[in-house]
Amino acid sequence: MDEFDFKEEKPRQPKRKFGSAVLNVGSLLTLLATLCSGGFFLQLFLDPDSEWNPLPPATATIAPTQTSVLPTQTLPPTAAATSQPTATPVPSATVQPLIYNLQDGSPAYLDATLFRPEQGCGFMGVFGQVFGLNDAPLTGVRVQVFGTLNGAAVDKLGLTGAATQYGSGAYYEIQLGNTPLASENTLQIVLLNENGEVLSSPVAFSTRGECNQNLVLINFKQIP
User: I need a surface site. Which of 4, 24, 125, 170 has the fewest CB within 10 A?
Assistant: First the structure.
């Protein structure tokens, strides 16, 4: 028998698997974390408005478009038809809305002492009546005398029916002065209604300087 040198072999120790297991677990966790992170970011990418997004995108504010409002064109007003003024009726029942003419025989010159004996020659004026279609004297007609007398302006009014000193025939009287003065058509006389509307054409007349002709009679008659 050969002589063998026997060496005592130590039994082979099994490899320790603890370190590998730790590495495997770490790798698995890393993989899981990667998958979770990828899924999280994929979710944020697909739904950026998700409540899990810590930085949600700013909501874009759309500015309202400015509407251009054109000014409304103003059309000129249409011309309205101008109506003709209607005649104003005479309010007085005793005055007809017609024209009066000078009565035949006017003017006439009288002595004022026939009606004013106390004044003698210290008076000058004009008096008379206004007759309607039925030849009845009318009351309420205004009589105006205007113009100049001896260089002075004259503008006086009388009213038919007011001069009762001449009787009950609805007379008017307008005193022109205290002394008879001669004039040649420098005065005019006209009839008016109570609204001042003319009822007759103005008639020019003269005055006398004599005491027996110091009262001028002027009558009017309504035109049929």
Answer: 4
Taking only the tens place, the pLDDT of each residue in 124-142 is 999 999 999 999 999 999 9
- Residue ranges per structural domain of the chain: 19-55, 100-222
Q: Per residue in 155-192, pLDDT tens?
A: 999 999 999 999 989 999 999 999 999 999 999 999 99
- What residue has token string 């970011």? 41
Give the number of other Cβ atoms within 10 Å of residue 109's Cβ.
15
Contacts of 132 (CB under 8 A, 6+ apart): 96, 138, 222
Stated pTM of the model:
0.57
Q: What is the DSSP string of 115-163?
A: T-TTTTTS-EEEEE-EE-TTSPBPSS-EEEEEEEETTEEEEEEEETT--
What's the CATH number for 100-222? 2.60.40.10
| 160, 171 Cβ separation under 8 angstroms | yes
Neighbours of 214 (CB within 10 A): 27
Tokens representing residue 48 in the block = 């950026």
d(CA 18, CA 11): 20
Q: How far is CA 63 from CA 57, 70, 124, 126, in A?
A: 18, 21, 96, 92
Q: Are 142 and 191 in contact (CB under 8 A)?
A: yes
**Residue 191, beta-bridge partner list:** 143
Distance CA 121, CA 136 (A): 32
